[in-house]
Amino acid sequence: PVTRTALARIEDLRATSGxxxxxxxxxxxxxxxxxxxxxxxxINEHINLVDIPVYRPRSTAxxxxxxxxxxxxxxxxxxTPEWSRRAEEAEIDSAPESTLVEKPGMSEGSWCMLVLFTFxxxxxxxxxxxxxxxxMSGDDDSSSSKRPSATSSASSSRTFxxxxxxxxxxxxxxxxxxxxxxxxxxxxxxxxxxxxxIVIEERRMEIRGDSARAPGETVHLQL
Length: 223
What we know:
By secondary structure, this protein is α+β, with helices and mostly antiparallel strands. The protein has helices spanning 81-89, 108-143, 176-190; strands spanning 4-15, 22-32, 39-48, 60-66, 69-75, 159-165, 194-195, 197-200, 204-210, 219-220. A hairpin with a 6-residue loop joins strand 1 (4-15) and strand 2. The longest helix has 36 residues, at 108-143. The protein starts with a strand and ends with a strand.
């Protein structure tokens, strides 16, 4: 597919957890192509934790987009020197929320057909279950006394969620040193560095964990 390069204003970003150093980040962007009006778009990119401080709200990034499908946008992590210079010098205004473009979903007619099909399938299932109960109720009564009892047990686990926020005009958790310091504080609160989810925003960090998870299903707080 044909792609074009453009500048984009980072309106907001939200980093979540991942199983490696590259974590998924939700971006809200204003894309400003050279040959069409600016527009809003929401995307998800995998960014290395070390590179997250580079992407700040209200800063400018270099992106690639598809003219025929403008919701298909990708951040260029290693732009050419010319585009890097343009990004440093540019000041992009935020586009209105009304310009948001999204990938088309199901049409209204398709949704109606799906709802109707689901309703009919549910009604048929109820009828089948009711008929089955009528034929099997006698057998259930006679065999209930012969069924062996079964017990089940579940292993206990400890789940936790904790978060912290910062305030002040110069405070930002997207600065790597501050990010590492905050992660260490949260680790001390919960008593472990193995977590199942990390949420990093400009002024808020949250971690979640479950002691029953295997090491391969957790991420270590080494920022």
